[in-house]
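Morning F.,

Quick status update on the modeling queue. The single chain you submitted on Monday has been processed. Sequence for confirmation:
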Amino acid sequence: MKTYNNLWDEFISPENFKLAAKKAIKSKKSKSAVQSFLRRSDVLLERLRADIMSGNFHTSPYVVKTIYEPKERQIYVLPLYPDHVLHHALVNILGPIWLNMFVRDSFACIPGRGLHAASQRVMHFVRKNKYVLQCDIRKFYPSISHAVMKRILRRKISDRRILKILDNIVDSCGGTRNVPIGNLTSQWFGNVFLNELDHFVKEKLHWRDYIRYCDDFCLFGDDKKKLREMRDKIQEYVNQELDLTFSKSSIYPVTRGFDFIGYRHFKKFILVRKTTAKKIRRNIVNMARHDDLSDHSIGQLAAYHGWIKWSNSYRFKRSVQQMIDREYGRRPGKFLSKNFWF
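Structure tokens below.
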């Protein structure tokens, strides 16, 4: 396997850090931390480069927050400067190298491969197969072994100065496990880590109808016995080579509806997952009830619209609009025009 060694000069260049800063502040210019950074950006970027070149850079302390949607998780927050800028500078250089490693059927956090591309790929597999083996990893990011992560990083990167910075980020939250959710680099680390699984399934097991989105992955086929054999082999590989464990695994007919990335996929149509539909309906009706069309709510509505339009959800959209109309039955005007949904 080819490894990349002479990356330092391109990484540490002023041009790379200016580009990294531009990406780090994108869509955030109204925030006070961004405005403060912009007033002194040239000086701060030179100071950051000097700290990195002298070996004095260390990841800043994290602010840890707990979120509860869609499930309870800890999010690790770093400041814009120096950390977000540094992470973007790394990804500018390492991202293209890692992208070339990824298989076609890995979709999460990859430019040009999002939820909807994954959903369309799933439909291709659902239409040609009888069964699906669906698996996911138990507490994936908190369970990532630092030692295994560093070993995998070294399979493509051999520049010692770059590896020193990567090691600092991997070790930044303490202990021997955990890649902090919230870092730009963590999205890439997670994909690089499970890229090992992707290649095992595709190249060692020679299984073609496979897809992965983050730590959720699936194999499709017509033989349940063969899928059970694949499950056992994958579970052994995940345990022994990646030091991870399954959260769950199940084999069932695709005709019952394949629930993946927020949608239920059938052979002829796609529906929004029931729990997702209930959440969307509840939130939209609450907005209508309180006449809430703030910038935040408008952004939420646009996201919901984008989510729903990729599914066959005429009845769902009609029921939401009817609920909105009932909320506005005693008052003039509409919370949303029907053109928004249909």
